[in-house]
Design a protein that fits this description.
Strand order of the largest sheet: 6-7-8-9-4-3-10
Shape: globular
Number of strands: 10
Order of helices and strands: EEEHEEEEEEE
Distance between the termini: 15 Å
Radius of gyration: 14 Å
């Protein structure tokens, strides 16, 4: 993948709005992107969500854990059971977990390399340039 996102292996900390869920994640971030699918739009209340994946074995919940809801036949989303914030997405059999940019505090080193579901993107917001050289939706 060609990406402006540098390899970072130092653990990162994250939390959600109410602070009931906190986590650390270690490993190289993979495929930072935005998503404009109808689920991301309706769950976020906005035109898109920002996601980045990390190795699942590098994730540790330090306070609380998400509640899970299936949103696709082979994927589930994690939500904060206290405030309802979207926490993560996990595909069946995956070795990585997708976390929202906002949970990580929108760090400046995580730059989206693509925008998924461009066909359902709002027309009034410029799309994220595709700088990724791997297959995507």
């Amino acid at each position: 993948m060609t990406s402006p996102t540098p390899a970072v292996t130092a653990p990162r900390s994250g939390a959600y709005r109410c602070g009931a869920i906190r986590f650390t994640v270690a490993g190289e971030p993979d495929y930072p992107h935005t998503c404009s699918c109808r689920d991301c739009q309706s769950l976020s209340g906005g035109p898109m969500m920002g996601w980045v994946s990390f190795p699942l074995d590098g994730l540790a919940w330090s306070s609380g854990e998400p509640s899970w809801h299936c949103t696709w036949p082979d994927s589930k989303r994690g939500f904060c059971p206290s405030c309802g914030s979207q926490v993560c997405a996990l595909d069946d059999g995956a070795t990585t977990i997708a976390l929202t940019f906002s949970a990580l505090g929108n760090p400046p080193d995580l730059v989206p390399v693509n925008q998924s579901f461009r066909e359902t993107a709002v027309p009034w917001l410029p799309q994220v340039p595709d700088t990724c050289d791997r297959p995507h939706t």
